[in-house]
Amino acid sequence: MSSVCYSISGRVSVQQRQQLRVASQILGQLPAAHRKPTQNRSSFLNRHFSSRVSQRSLIAAASKDEEQSDPENFAYTHLWVSKDGETHIKEATMKGFDLKKFAAEPQFVKQGFKVKNLVFTEMAPGLKNDFHPCPSVQFVVCVGGSWYIKTTDGTTKTMKAGDILFQDNIEDSPADKPPSHFSGVEGDQPCQQVVIQVDRKAEVDNPGSL
To answer: Where are the annotated segments for Disordered (predicted)?
Structure first.
């Protein structure tokens, strides 16, 4: 079986690497008459990748029998706590996904969070919450309007629709003192949120832990 080599400059995405792997496997299974001429190889690949095979099917085929890769940029903001009880902000990317069938076709899935409570909330324009701990280790997903958080180190972050905050600055934190943050609504529109409280231990000195 012949091998196919590709020289690629610049950054190569996970999907591109997987598609090239599939292409190499397909070419290795072709009769010799199709494998020798470069023009035939290019023609075959063009026909193959312009077919109705979905990108999700290509990803699933390329990922079989190998370690799964995470999404390239599943972003969230971590309001984290240092051992001294001060709070900070870390822009992070989630890891630990599996590429597997979940609804119908394969997709990136991250599981393992035990939900304790699910809260829908709307905060009025101008609302401000003085420095306070969060009630639970939780995710806060902004679905409308915008709000902001301010940590005890003086950093302020605005969260808009689609942004995800993870925070574990609960009162019963293992930090040296109860950690807190300031929050409020930004702009003249209400801010709507989905709060997902999870059964997870609060940590210190572990930014970007998801």
So the answer is: 169-189
Residue recorded with tokens 């394969």: 106
- Residue 189 burial (CB count, 10 A): 12
Residues 191, 162: contact at Cβ < 8 Å? no
- Phi and psi (nearest 5°) for 18? -70, -40
Q: Of 2.60.120.10, 2.120.10.80, 3.30.470.30, 3.20.20.70, which CATH number belongs to 75-198?
A: 2.60.120.10
Measure Cα distances from 38 to 16, 17, 21, 34, 111 in Å: 20, 20, 18, 9, 44
Mean pLDDT of 127-141: 98
Length of the chain: 210
Whole-angstrom distance, CA of residue 96 vs CA of residue 110: 6
Q: Where are the domains of the chain?
A: 14-63, 75-198
pLDDT (tens digit, 9 = 90+) per residue, 161-207?
Answer: 999 999 999 999 999 999 999 999 999 999 999 999 999 999 999 99
Q: Are 189 and 145 in contact (CB under 8 A)?
A: yes
Instruction: Say whether pTM exceeds 0.85.
Output: no
> In 10 A of CB 161, how many CB atoms?
13
Mean pLDDT to the nearest integer, 13-24: 54
Q: How far apart are CA 155 and CA 147, in angstroms?
A: 14
79: helix, strand or coil: strand
**Contact (CB, 8 A) for 64 and 9:** no
